[in-house]
Specification:
Length: 122
């Protein structure tokens, strides 16, 4: 248990992937002026944003439903801890918000990927 959530292995991969991308960007760009590492970092970050954004935008494998269920469970737990049971009754964020946010993230990922591809051709 970690912070009231059950630890899942799919949560381990993004920080590890980010660490690897940072190591590639830092080690290859530091000793020279060749921006290859930074471009690889931008492309990988853009590809990851496209995947995560599309997952939320199109509700792949129930990503939005799972996020809303986790949010509802966290509000219920917070309500039990504080004694305010009305927290779980609030429904301020719906599935449309997460689908919109996923679309924005996917478009930003496309922009990062296009930017890295554009800079490679220069």
């Amino acid at each position: 248990m970690w912070g009231g959530m059950q630890w899942r292995w799919h949560l381990v991969q993004p920080p590890a992937m980010l660490h690897v991308m940072l190591m590639i960007a830092i080690s290859s760009a530091a000793p020279s002026s060749d921006p290859t590492g930074v471009l690889i970092f931008l492309a990988a970050l853009g590809a990851a944003a496209i995947c995560i954004g599309a997952r939320w935008a199109f509700n792949l494998r129930g990503a939005v439903d799972a996020t809303l269920a986790r949010r509802r469970a966290a509000l219920e737990l917070r309500g039990q801890r504080t004694g305010d049971l009305s927290l779980a009754d609030t429904d301020s964020v719906g599935p449309g918000f997460f689908k919109y946010l996923g679309g924005v993230i996917a478009v930003a990922g496309l922009a990062l990927l296009a930017l890295s591809l554009f800079l490679v051709t220069d």
